[in-house]
Amino acid sequence: MKKIQLLLTLLLCMVFASADAQQNWNFASMSQADKDLCAADAKWVLGTDRYCYTKELTEAALVANGVELSYAKGLKFTASAPSDNTEGKAKIRLNYGSSRMELNGTNVTIIIPGLTAGQTVTVSCMTGKNGVARGLNVTNLTPVSGSFNSISTEKQTNVGTVTADGDVQLSTSAGMYVYSIEVGEGGGTEPVNPSTGSNVAMNLNKNQMRVTLNTNDVKYYNTENVSSVNINGGNITVNPANGNAADVYEGNVKNLAFAKAKDGGQSGDIDSPAGAVQISESKGWLESVYAKWTPYSGAESYNVYCNDKKIDEQLIRLYPSFVRADVLGLAAGTYNLKVVAVDKEGNEIAGSASTVSNLQVKNYSREGFAHFHSKSVGVGAYNNDGTLKKGAKVFYVTAKTAKTISTEVKGAGTCTGIQAIIDGYQKGEDKTPIAFRFIGLVKKDNLDKVSSSSEGLQIKGKSEYSEMNMTFEGVGDDATVHGFGFLCRYAKGVEFRNFAIMRCMDDCISLDTRNAEIWIHNMDFFYGPNGGGDHAKGDGTVDLKDDSQYLTFSYNRFWDTGKSSLCGMKSETQPNYISYHHNWFDHCDSRCPRVRTMSVHVWNNYFDYVAKYGVGSTTGSSVFVENNYFRGTNRPMMSSQQGTDATGDGTFSGEKGGIIKSFGNVFAENSKYFSFITYQKNNTSFDAYEASSRDEQIPASVKTLVGGTSYDNFDTNSSLMYSYAADAAEDVPAIVTGFYGAGRINHGDFTWTFEDIDGHNSASYAYDAKLGSALDNYKTTLVKVYGEGCSSTETGSGSGSGETGGTETGGGSTETPEGTVLCTFTGKTPSSNIFTVTGNYSTSKGTATIDGNVYDTCVKMESSTSIDFTLSESKKVTIYFADTETASIKIDGTKKKGSESSYTETLAAGAHKLTKADSRNVFGIKLEPVE
Q1: CA distance 927 to 241
Q2: What residues pair up with 657 in beta bridges, in sequence order?
Q3: For 222-239, how does the pLDDT look when each residue is reduced to its tens digit (9 = 90+)?
Q4: How many Cβ atoms from other residues are within 10 Å of residue 347's Cβ?
Q5: For the segment 264-301, what is each residue's pLDDT rounded down to a tens digit?
Q6: Biggest distance spanned by C-alpha atoms of the chain
Q7: 110 vs 840: CA distance, rounded Å
Q8: C-alpha distances in Å from residue 536, one per residue of 67, 506, 541
Q9: 354: which strand partners?
Q10: Cα gap 272→270, rounded to integer Å
C-alpha cells in the first residue's frame, strides 16, 4: 500500500509540476482540441484560419467552453470589449494559419504571472501593420535587447530581465503580432543545499526522481527512499521515507521528472541436478539465448539442445573457468535449453543433463529507415522475425578459420577465406543470404586478405545498391575484430551486429558510395589508429557519404570516439534518409552525428558527457533531434556559422548551415559553458527550432543564417517516415545502458571507467593513453571453440550444402518456427515471415496489451483483408484485438467470437486464412506448441 500511495503522490506532483512549470509559449500552431473548444463557444468567432475572442477580458485566462486553452495556458490577458463581434474588431485573435497571436489595438496586455527577480523573458513579435513602427511596453521587466518600451517596423526578438518577484505585463502600443514567449533562468533564490543530504548520485540501477534546478544542476532521489513530495507554489519539499528532515527547494526548480531503473534481463529457470552439468547463468536476449556452466569432469565436449534441436557445436566455447553456449537466429518467444556432457567416444554421459526453461527472447528493434525501405524483406541474412532467411549459409569465423572457410559462389567458383567469399559476391550472380559469425578475437593477420587497403574487409556490389544479403555478427559477449574495419560500397542489404571493432585501419565502418538498407546495431566502437592531433583517436568511426541512403544506426556504443559519425559529404545528388536511435555516445568528442545535405532522425540517444558537441548540422541538411538525453554535454546541437557556433571558438564548421528541429530532449548536469540557443530565443542566429509538438512543421520562413536553406519536414511526411515508438527522454539512460541496451550482449567483455586520471578529465576530449594501451594489449580469454573448422551438424528448414566452417539454412515461410512465436505489425509489416497480410494497417485504432507490452499498429479487418499462414504442425493460435474490442474473426471462413479482446483455438497443420467477421483490428497473433 505504501508503494501505491507514493506512486499516486508522485504522479500528482508530476501533474502539478508540469502545470506550474510551463514557461514557454509557441503560438505557431493550435491544437485540434483547442479548435474544437472554440468552435463550441459563442464568445469565439472563426475567421480566416484564426479564432477571435469577442468579449472583454480583465486579468483573465483564455477560456473556451469552460476550459482554459492549452494555446496560452498559464497566461492572463486584459483587453477591452470589441465594438462588434466580427473578426476584424476582435482584440485577441489566435491566427494558427499565420503561426501567431494577434493583439489588435492599444493597451492589449499579456500578463505572465508569478515570476522571480532575475529571470529572463524573451518575446518574438512584430508590428501588426507593415511599415508602421509599433512595440510592446513592459511592466516589471528591465529591457536587455530588442525593442521593449520602444517601437520598430521589423520583426524583433526582445529580451528583458524580471525586476522584482511578481507578474510581468506586456502591453501593445498598437496592433502587434506575437510569435512566442519564453521565460528562462535567472537570479532569484539560490539553490538550496539540503541539510539532510537525502539526494544521491545518478544510479541507473534504481528508479529515481530527478529534480532539475534553474542552474541546470540535477538532484537525484531513489524513489524507494521518498515517502512524498509536496508542492506549494514555487517551493518543492522532498520528504524522505526514513523520517529525517525534508529537503526544501525554494522557487528554484525548473523540472521534476522520474526515470525507471535499467532492465537486468530475465533469467531462465535452471534445473541442474546433483551430478549433472552445473549451469550458473542463462538468459534470453535479442533473438538469442545463452547459458554458462562449470566444466564437467570427464567431458570431452558437450551437446546443447534448444527446444530439442541440437545446435552447431561451434556455438559452444571453453573459457578458463566456464563453458558458454549461445544460440542465434531465434524469433521472439519462449525457449528451453538442455546441456549434456559428451565423453571421448562421443557418447552423452548418463546423468549429466541439465535444463533451462522459460527463456524469454525479444526481437531486435527494426525501427528506422533501413527496414522502412526494405519493407518485408529482412536486412542482411535474417528475416524480420529474427530467423535466418531460407537457404542462408552460415560461416563461423575464428582466428584459425578466417582463411579456410570455403564455399561455392555462383559466377566465381570455389572461394576460400572470408574476403575471397565476399569478393565472389561482387560478381552479382549469387544472392544467397550469408551470415559470417565471428567468435573470439580475430585480427587482421588472421584474414586471407583485405580488398580495401585503407579500411580492411570490403563489401562491394557489382553496381550501385546491389543486393548482398550479408550479416556480420558476433557470437556471445567477446567477439572482437582488431586492426581492421569494414568498407561498404555499392552494397544493399548488409547488417553488422554484436561485435567490437578495436584499432581499425581508418574507420570502424565506412559506408562509402551508393549503399542502401544498411543496419548497424548493437556494436562496440573503439579507437582507431593514433594519428596524432585531431586524429589521435583515429579518423572517423562510422562514416557514410556519397548517396548512401536508408540506413539505421541503433543501440551502438561509441567509446570515447573522437569523430563518431560523419553523415554526408557535399556530393549527394538525391534525398538520403538516415536514422540514429538508442545509441550510447559514451564520453565521445563530437559528430554524434555531423550531418551534411541529408535528412536525419536522431532519437532516444544517450549523450553521456560529449565533450565538443553532440549533433551538428551543415550544408542544407535537415535533422530531427527527438527525446534524447544530453548529460554533461555543453553544446548539444549546433548549426554551422550561427547560434552557439557563431559565438564559440570555431571548433565546429565553416560550412553553410543546416536546420535542426528539436523536441522532447533532456539537458542534465550542465556546466557553466552550456549553450543551446533556440529559434524562439533568437530567430536569426540559433542552434535549433524548438517544436511545440512532435508533429509540428517548421515554417519555410525559418532559414539558416548562412546559406538560407529551410527544413524539409521529412519527419511529418507519412510517405517518407516510418512508424516508431519514442521512449520518454528521462528513461533513455536506463534503456540504453540496460540488458537490452547499446553494445554487445552483456555489454561485452571489455570494461572501462572514464574518470579524472593523470589529467584526463571524464569530460575531456584529450586522447586517453591508458584506454589506448588497454586496446593495444587486449587479449581474448577464449580457450577453445568446440568443433572449430568442422562442418555444421545443424540443418535448418531450407536446403544447404555444409561448406567448410559450418553452414546453416534459414527458416522460410513454409516452415513453422519452433517454440512460441508472436507476430506483431510494428512498422506496418508482420514481424514473422510465415504470415502474409493482404490489406491495410493503422496506428490509430487504439492499442493492445500482449504479454505486458503495448502495441499500437494493427491490421484493419476489412472486407478485402486476409491474413494467410501455413502450419507445419498443430499449434495453439491466439489472435489479439484492441484492448477495447471483443474478439470476432473468421478462421477459414467460419466466424469465431470471444468475450475478451483475444481469441484462442488449436489449429491443425495446413494452410489457414483469417478474414473479416465484424469490424475489428488485429494487433498480434501468437503460435504456441500444443501440449
Answers
A1: 46
A2: 618
A3: 999 999 999 887 788 999
A4: 10
A5: 999 999 999 999 999 999 999 999 999 999 999 999 99
A6: 103
A7: 48
A8: 59, 12, 12
A9: 339
A10: 6
